[in-house]
UniProtKB/TrEMBL annotation:
Enzyme Commission number(s): 2.1.1.170
UniProt keyword Manganese present: no
Entry protein name: Ribosomal RNA small subunit methyltransferase G
Signal sequence, start to end: none
Biological process per Gene Ontology, one example term: methylation
Task of the protein: Specifically methylates the N7 position of guanine in position 527 of 16S rRNA.
SUPFAM superfamilies in the record: S-adenosyl-L-methionine-dependent methyltransferases (SSF53335)
Residues reported in the UniProt entry to bind S-adenosyl-L-methionine: G70, F75, A123, E124, R136
One Gene Ontology MF term: methyltransferase activity
Class in the EC hierarchy, top level: transferase
InterPro entries: rRNA_ssu_MeTfrase_G (IPR003682), SAM-dependent_MTases_sf (IPR029063)
Species of origin: Brevundimonas denitrificans
Length: 206
């Protein structure tokens, strides 16, 4: 996917495109000194990372506040913050336990004046109320739902970017958790899935 193809698909403004270009530039530079994303994915960054993140907005078009768990390189959180930047009621929390990743995230947030807060801490220990909690490539569903539980219990919808093993992960997760879920095919990779989760609670032991 080219930048112009992304701009057409998302109806992105010139300002949003400029911010996304800056994100890619800073990510490329940072990735040379720390492992944020696989270097082999950079040539396809617009599809693999930018569009992959942006598609979440189609599944929650009214959502203003988001929490990105294990925000890492900023996917999907930084992309969401860029695309929601002109929305006055929007805010994205970028949560990561590793200090050097948080420093990268904060540098981008500051450079682009994003409506976002970087939190250096464990996802499951935060007490933040948001419309949507999200994560990408963070953990298998069973553990991921544990990280997301505080947000889901406060009324958030879960939207999680997963790979082709999503169905198998959901089967395993249901041994520990009760929840309602839907699966959508990823528009960036037909092998990928987006898992939507609501009403989470632990399975009662017998």
């Amino acid at each position: 996917m080219t930048p112009s193809e992304f701009q057409t698909l998302r109806s992105a403004t010139p300002a949003q495109m400029a911010d996304l270009e800056t994100l890619i530039e800073r990510l490329t530079a940072a990735n040379a000194v720390m492992n944020l994303i696989g270097p082999d994915t950079l040539p396809d960054v617009w599809n693999r990372h930018i569009f992959d993140s942006a598609q979440l907005l189609d599944l929650a078009p009214d959502a203003a506040t988001w929490a990105d768990l294990g925000a890492g390189a900023g996917f999907p959180g930084l992309v969401l913050a860029i695309l929601l930047k002109d929305r006055a009621d929007s805010h994205v929390w970028l949560i990561d336990s590793l200090g050097k990743r948080c420093r990268f995230l904060q540098e981008v947030v500051d450079a682009l004046s994003l409506r976002a807060t970087v939190v250096n801490g464990r996802a499951e220990e935060q007490r933040i109320k948001v419309d949507v909690v999200t994560a990408r490539a963070l953990a298998p569903m069973e553990r991921l739902l544990g990280y997301a539980q505080p947000y889901l219990q406060r009324g958030a919808q879960g939207l999680f970017l997963k790979g082709e093993k999503a169905e198998a992960e959901l089967i395993e997760a249901r041994k520990v958790w009760q929840f309602d879920s839907d699966l959508s095919v990823s528009r960036s990779d037909p092998r990928g899935r987006i898992v939507s989760v609501r009403s989470l609670r632990r399975v009662q032991s017998r």
